[in-house]
Write a structure and sequence with these properties.
With about 80 residues, the chain is mainly alpha-helical. The protein has three helices and no strands. It is globular and about 35 Å long. It is found in: Cell membrane. Belongs to the UPF0410 family. Keywords: Cell membrane, Membrane, Transmembrane, Transmembrane helix.
């Protein structure tokens, strides 16, 4: 399912914000949106390769964005040190 640009930004921002809260890192709302959107794309590629199917629609995109954002924030935390 294709997610529209505005929906992608909102869900990406939400998933980035949630991941930031979980990982206890704050990069600001703009960076959270970017990390959430990139994280969703990253997690989508990882899940497709592994054959893992997450819920479809905006919920699936949110879960994938959250997982991908957590991965990106973990890497950012390592690099920041």
């Amino acid at each position: 399912m294709e997610v529209g640009l505005i929906t992608g930004i909102v869900i990406g921002g939400l998933s980035g914000w949630l991941a930031g809260k979980l990982m206890d890192l704050r990069f600001g709302i703009l960076m959270n949106i970017v990390i959430g959107m990139i994280g969703a794309v990253l997690a989508n590629a990882i899940f497709d390769r592994a054959g893992i199917h997450v819920a479809s629609g905006w919920l699936g995109y949110l879960v994938q964005g959250f997982v991908g954002s957590c991965i990106l924030l973990f890497v950012a935390k390592l690099v920041r040190r």
